[in-house]
Amino acid sequence: MPASYAYLGPEGTFTEVALRTLPESATRQLIPYVSVQSALDAVRTGEAEAAFVPIENSVEGGITTTLDELVAGTPLMIYREVLLSITFALLVRPGTKLADIKTVSAHPAAQPQVRNWLKANLPEAAWESAASNADAARLVQEGRYDAAFAGEFAAARYGLTALETEIHDAENAQTRFVLVGRPARPAAPTGADKTSVVLWQRDDHPGGLRDLLGEFATRGVNLMLLQSRPTGAGIGNYCFCIDAEGHISDRRMAEALMGLKRICREVRFLGSYPRAEVSVADVAAPLPGTSDGEFVAAADWVARCQDGRF
Q1: Quick one: which of 241, 239, 294, 296 has its CA closest to 270?
Q2: Residue 115: which of 172, 164, 65, 170 has the closest Cα?
Q3: Which residues partner with 284 through β-bridges?
Q4: Residue 231: what pLDDT?
């Protein structure tokens, strides 16, 4: 049997479409799971080599279910990311008209992306959340709900009709997906990489977040995502999920992570991996004083001072 990739199912999700853009998906057994948690747990237990799940969208930001699963439990690591443009179709059973729709369903992350369309076209319809957009389509097929927001490609899979297509409140909306596996050595840097970490402060004090961000800023590391998530230890207790530009093998990134390790109660490394749809030519040059060569030269200068050779 080929190695398997778990993904947020059932069949017909945007997650499956994005997963199939990875060349290696053609040589893997692709297994749908009912939730992000169950897909990631399949990796933790060894049932799957890796899991492919959504982690961020351009309308609402981080997918909290995925972030919370990566924050807690046995550590996992991100190896790849994929960006997928998202537009929804309103899927119904054949013969259903817009006026017949009293209930609509989709994944909770879809609601902010169709909220205005829903208000304008189905203001009285009740929203019901589903485990995924494809699962919402399945529930429409079974007669539980009247309509689902999902990819138009899911209509044939579930015997439904696309009553409306090209539904989106925000132009050029995208969702970011990640391939997650068990911890191992990160892939070699490409020059267009991203590093993800989770940070826990030692204590709550004025300027605490500034101190964390300062470790990146003083070394010229650009942040791409910053999101706080509750730790479960009570109101006001948060950890911080961060995506930063660069690879752990870059001197500026490595030194920033070392600085964070010194001042944080805990740092969870989630991986360094290639950025989707970005080439080396698209990456801005390091700020003056933050290139690998300049870090090496500065360390050499300190060593010479210690030896009295300055």
Answers
A1: 241
A2: 170
A3: none
A4: 85
